[in-house]
Automatic annotation (TrEMBL), chain A:
This is Lactate utilization protein C. It comes from Kocuria flava. InterPro entries: FTHF_cligase-like_sf, LUD_dom, NagB/RpiA_transferase-like. Pfam families: LUD_dom. Residues 117-216 form the LUD domain.
UniProtKB/TrEMBL annotation, chain B:
Residues 515-524 have a biased composition (Low complexity). Keywords: 4Fe-4S, Electron transport, Iron, Iron-sulfur, Metal-binding, Repeat, Transport. Residues 86-310 form the LUD domain. Residues 411-435, 504-547 are annotated as: Disordered. This is Iron-sulfur cluster-binding protein. PANTHER family: LACTATE UTILIZATION PROTEIN B. Residues 326-395 form the 4Fe-4S ferredoxin-type domain. Residues 538-547 have a biased composition (Basic and acidic residues).
Length: 217, 547
């Protein structure tokens, strides 16, 4: 580390220690807020669905059998879409001449990884997810093999996200407890939106403007 | 720790620089802004919309107060253990392949960041909305060094394209309505034409088109951070549009500027703040996107990751035990949206990067209350307390405002200075002077109000006030120093009678009414002052319908 770094750090820390001249010793935080759900599973799923619809996401309930058909319908007859290399291929619809999945290796350094311009040219992306919080309608992606690196779920304009029912929890504390803190985390609550003009929410800016969530169980 | 230093910081507080000072004192700036009726209408509409949304989503959580208390307590812990937490944070970021820099002030932060950008060879950077980079005026510094910074948040883009200044923490373009925004886009975005409507949907689409190529081609991004987790080295950015994700994901180099107070001890602590922030801020259950990253993730996102830890006066704020909780602020802006003064004056009147109630306590502490211009900020409040009620981390803003007013008055009288040493007249804002007219007035008021008998005597003068007021029942001119008040407004005529006198004649009525209704009166409640019971027919001149 440079001298400037060491000097600045030492001075800032000295200033802070000096500022704490009264040696404050506050009581530890009492975590009396809700940390575990008291609701039945079905009620929690319904809550998630309600929140997602409120955010203007498409919500679909499917079984493993009906899933490929639903994805095919959402993609349309003609689509080039990207999937993370680790996705369960049984989820995906049959390939046709006009509808094709492109697998991304989840590592941008691999030669077969898609560049940003290629990602910008695909129609959609299909991923799984780690955990979802019903109370806030939030889906967590954490870069696992069936979720892919962050760019693939960001650049394409249509994100089809699969939420296995067993990954749904009610509360934020329950959701955070299920993710690896040092993973690259993306929390998604509906499609891209802005409230910057007269504080009115408008869906669809830079992230995927269309979000379809498939509750799989 | 040496007890001789008790109550005094051992190290002299060092204040911040950058966009923290008002160019003109608040009263003058506010007067100018008040003339802008369009802006006031825009702000009124926007703040009222967001107030309603916030209230609805806060109401929804049964444990909101518990979350607020936990948020407040965690922030107190952070302040008490800040040196250790910052070192822990640095160690964890470094262990995961990131680089941590320390900046004592705005100038040093700008120098570090410019150097990092220059090292990449790029002359373009994309930016995520960040209060810290606004505070240090980073864009100007980059421009002076031939680097173009493009703001990618819609509101920041509107401000940047309009050559304007931000006026709100969350929505910097709150002072502009859709029609004004359309005009800016038409003028500044070559790809737009007259077919662009003023519909927010169309405007958002125009911004998407305008920025898409920038996102795909720019190799350096600069962000702020909402939280930095000491335990893991994790950084967090909370946003809506996806411009944040673009900046945090696609470029090769990512430079994050974070105020030292943004640290939280553990990853678990985020469960509190990720509930408090979106509901208080945009009035949503959750913002559309939150990103977290820890150093470098090989093969995913930027591979050259930097964090600049910024002091710029924060340690000076920390040195005042009565004012330091201003550092608990998570920049939600709920206090702006409920503030009657902000609603009328708008964000520009506060001059500093931090407007509204939080700005009124944060800016003067960051720069020091001895800063002439910022000394007027603690007075920019009616002390109504609405800001405290909505603050997600329970910062007692009114209490700190009063404390800072006291500091300012004592500074003016040479009773304190900001170096923590004994007051030295040379360092005070104004030289000490003989007791002013106001001092004498206050002394007089204190003499009268501290005695019930003297107060009663003074109240006998009320009818005189009615005579002064005349037929319109308003006093529009008063002499001397108090005339400052009537320069701007009228004083309603005093009532015919003081409340004390009126009560003396009516205190006994409750018992009598209850007795008349046949209810068991509060007769068994001992009256400690027998004189309380007065006959109902005691003389009074209040009309019957008043009762």
């Amino acid at each position: 580390m440079s001298t400037a770094h060491t000097e600045a750090k030492a001075e800032i820390l000295a200033r802070i220690r000096g500022a704490l001249h009264d040696a404050p010793a506050p009581a530890p935080a009492a975590r009396t807020y809700r940390r575990t759900s008291g609701r039945a599973g079905a009620e929690v799923i319904e809550m998630l669905e309600d929140r997602l619809v409120d955010y203007k996401a498409g919500v679909h309930r499917e079984t493993p059998e009906s899933l490929p058909g639903r994805i095919a319908e959402l993609l349309g007859a003609s689509a080039r879409y990207v999937v993370p290399a680790g996705i369960d291929t049984a989820w995906l619809p049959e390939e046709t001449a006009a509808r094709r999945a492109i697998a991304d290796p989840n590592d941008a350094r691999t030669p077969s990884a898609l560049g940003v311009r290629e990602l910008n040219a695909v129609d959609a992306v299909v991923t799984s997810s780690t955990v979802s919080c019903a109370e806030t309608g939030t889906i967590f992606l954490t870069g696992r093999p069936d979720e892919g690196r962050r760019a693939i779920s960001l650049v394409p304009d249509h994100h089809i996200c699969i939420v296995p029912l067993e990954t749904v929890v009610e509360l934020i504390p329950e959701a955070l407890a299920r993710i690896e803190p040092t993973a690259p985390v993306t929390m998604i609550s509906g499609p891209s939106a802005t409230s910057d003009i007269e504080l009115e929410r408008v869906e669809g800016v830079h992230g995927p403007r269309r979000l379809d969530v498939i509750l799989l169980g | 720790m040496s007890r001789t230093a008790l109550g005094m910081p051992a190290v002299r507080p060092v204040h911040g620089h950058g966009r923290l000072h008002t160019a003109v004192p608040f009263p003058e700036a506010a007067e100018a802004e008040l003339g802008n009726t369009q802006m006031r209408a825009n702000i009124r509409h926007a703040t009222h919309t967001i107030r309603g949304k916030r209230a609805r989503v806060v109401e929804e959580l049964p444990d909101w107060e518990e979350l607020r208390s936990a948020g407040s307590a965690i922030k107190e812990q952070v302040m008490a253990h800040l040196p250790e937490l910052l070192e822990q944070f640095e160690a964890n970021v470094t262990a995961r392949g990131g680089t941590v820099h320390w900046a004592r002030d705005a100038e040093e932060a700008n120098r570090i960041i410019t150097g990092l950008v220059q090292a990449t060879g790029s002359t373009d950077v994309i930016k995520i909305k960040s209060m810290a980079t606004q505070e240090i005026a980073l864009d100007d510094h980059l421009e002076a060094h031939g680097i173009t910074a493009t703001e990618t948040d819609l509101a920041e883009l509107i401000v940047q394209l309009g050559h304007d200044r931000p006026s709100h923490i969350l929505v910097p373009a709150i002072h502009k309505n859709r029609h004004e925004i359309r005009d800016i886009f038409l003028e500044q975005m070559p790809e737009t034409d007259e077919s662009l409507t003023a519909e927010p949907r169309d405007l958002a689409e125009a911004a998407r088109k305008h920025l898409r190529e920038k996102f795909l081609s720019t190799s350096v991004a600069i962000s702020g951070a909402n939280f930095g987790v000491a335990e893991t080295g994790t950084l967090t950015v909370v946003e809506s549009e996806g411009n944040g994700r673009m900046c945090l994901t696609l470029p090769e180099t990512l430079i994050t500027v974070m105020g030292i107070e943004k640290i939280v001890p553990t990853f678990e602590d985020l469960e509190v703040f990720l509930q408090l922030l979106p509901r208080s801020s945009t009035g949503e259950r959750m913002n559309p996107y939150t990103s977290m990253w820890t150093g470098v993730t090989p093969g995913d996102g930027p591979q050259d990751v930097h964090v600049v830890l910024l002091d710029n006066g924060r340690s000076a704020v920390l040195s005042d035990p009565k004012g330091r909780s201003a550092l608990h602020c998570i920049r939600c802006s709920a206090c702006l949206n409920v503030c009657p003064v902000y609603e009328q004056a708008g964000g520009h009147a506060y001059g500093s990067t931090y407007p509204g109630p939080i700005g009124a306590i944060l800016s003067p502490q960051l720069t020091g209350i001895t800063s002439e211009q910022n000394a007027s900020l603690p007075y920019a409040s009616s002390l109504c307390g609405a800001c405290y009620d909505v603050c997600p981390v329970k910062i007692n803003i009114p209490e700190i405002l009063v404390h800072l007013r006291d500091e300012d008055v004592r500074t003016q009288h040479g009773e304190r200075s900001d170096d923590g040493a004994a007051a030295a007249p040379a360092r005070t804002r104004r030289t000490p002077k003989a007791p002013s007219q106001m001092d004498l007035l206050m002394k007089g008021a204190s003499f009268v109000m501290s005695s019930g008998r003297r107060m009663a005597l003074a109240e006998k003068g009320l009818p005189l006030g009615r005579v002064v007021a005349g037929k319109d029942r308003a006093i529009s001119w008063l002499p001397g120093v108090v005339g400052g008040w009537t320069d701007e407004r009228d004083i309603p005529a005093p009532p015919r009678e003081s409340f004390r006198n009126w009560w003396a004649g009516h205190a006994g009525e409750t018992d009598q009414r209850l007795a008349a209704d046949g209810a068991a009166g509060p007769a068994d409640v001992p009256h400690d002052r027998p004189g309380d019971a007065q006959p109902v027919d005691a003389p009074h001149d209040r009309p019957e319908e008043d009762r």
